[in-house]
Amino acid sequence: MKNVLTLLLTTLLVAVAASSVLAGTDDLNELMDQKITVPGHGDTPYSWREVFMDITVGSVSYALPDFSSFALSSPTLAKGAAQAYFQHQRTIAYANYERAMENGNVADQRYYEGVIARLEAAVTWVSTGNGTELRALLSKRDQQTVEKEDAGPPSTVSADGKITATGPFTKGVPGVTYSDRYITLTMGLDKNGSPVCYGAGYIKVSNGNEWIDYFFTLNPGKPLVSGSTSSYSSFPSSFSWQGNGILEIRFGQASWKGPLYWRAEMKNGAVTGYITDFFNSLVNKVPFDFLLASIPEPLPFEAHFFDPSSGSGKIPFLKGGEGRS
Amino acid sequence: MKKVFALAIFSILFACFPVNAAEPVDPVDQFLLAQKYKKGDGIPVDMNKAFYWYEKSAKQGFPPAQFETALFFDLGKAGVKKDYVTAAYWYGQAAAQGEVNSQYNLGGLLWEGGFGLERDMEKAMDWWFLAAVQGHVGSQHNLGYAYAQRGKQDPEQFKKAYYWYHQAADQGAPKDQWHLGVFCENGLGVEKDLRSAIYWYRKAAAQGHADARERLKKLGY
């Protein structure tokens, strides 16, 4: 009797396992069989793999809709797979970026700055549906169209006159583990020839199976020197800004937002600065102390870009770019 | 007499319905037994029995057994007829559960086609992609190669080739470090940069890559 029961139980377990296997097979095959028609690219169907790769290496510009319209017939699986892919590749890209910095491989640094910026924007796109930043980055593909003066422009300068600088937040809280901590700044000249700077930062604090996401939005800043009305025909080699923005903290299914203040100084190919004034506005909003205790205030950063200051001393642009209005 | 008769009946029954207490039912135990037959671990090597137990375990959904079963059909081992369709089936069962070697091999089968299996290079790249993002060096290399082939028609594809060769090179693969050197020297998918090219040629040469050594000599390094 005991043997019969064992046999029945084993058969039942095998059947359950087999059905799970078949379900997994179906979901994954369904995902891989999906072909996506991307707006702006005619009727040519793309595999989801190609879309991921196009975004990662910035090889194509898409008129990206929000993710819900991009989603495949297994939307949960597709969104989860996309989020996991972009976050994972971003972690790898940042590790490669740091390695390139250690090895002094400038070309690789520039390469991974672009990759990181695109993947970060892709995470935002998948998470929030907002593809604005990603679309903008994919529109600025590597193009050798900038006027060449002496050695030619750095590759972080795009055809419409913006520079991207990326780097880490340089201070943490002892005992807290950060799996991501970086800022990406975009700088350029607005239509009046005034240098502008804006950006986004991200910190991920990991604790076993839980994590906290910190999204920093740095709105376009004003010159730090009040009353400065200088107009430039090419981007200066040094400048300072201050501005405000938003810090969003996400933990589990909840999120909280509050204002922030930031300052940045650009010189010698680097942009250093800090973010501050977010604690007081959020301390009474967030339910747990550790959400604010896990990041320092002020929060300093250091971002880098290619600076041919050994040549002309100025960063050449095609023409004045347009900052965000 | 009665005892002798009973003993005879019992022996006949035992012979017809052997109670083999050593036969495993659990798929992991079946897999482990197959491994013993494959490696001759405490028992004589017997690839037929290895295949038997791998297949039994595979049918219960155990991914390592599905991979091993697929190998028999893929390579035509132990008298099993080479059959890419069946191999692809078993690789696919394991691949869908995230078994990275199966994803890699399935990609290889689909890339080549043959032995009953229709070629499907897009699906091959999809499976390599799934393995590559898990860090499988061979899949990263294959994706680099696949995109590099496409790059000859569409130079934009070289960017993707560069990306995957880079991932493999960062894990120390000398031939991919060599490829990166070539890409950097010739501006394929990345800005032309001789310094970076030499950096990657040196890394490949340090691991004995002959072409990298030769190129460095020609460049005067």
Architecture overview:
- The complex is a heterodimer of chains A (about 325) and B (about 220).
- Chain A is α+β, with helices and mostly antiparallel strands.
- Chain A is built from 8 helices and 11 strands.
- In chain A, the strands form 2 sheets. In chain A, strands 3, 4, 5, 6, 7, 8, 9, 10 and 11 form a 9-stranded antiparallel β-sheet that branches. In chain A, strands 1-2 form a two-stranded antiparallel ribbon.
- In chain A, α4 (about 75-105) packs antiparallel against α5 and α5 (about 105-130) packs antiparallel against α6 (about 130-140).
- Chain A is globular, with a radius of gyration of 23 Å.
- The termini of chain A are far apart.
- Chain B has about 220 residues and is mainly alpha-helical.
- In chain B, about 70% of the residues lie in helices and about 0% in strands.
- In chain B, α3 crosses α4 (about 65-75).
- Chain B is elongated and about 100 Å long.
- The interface of A and B includes residues 21, 32, 106 and 155 of A.
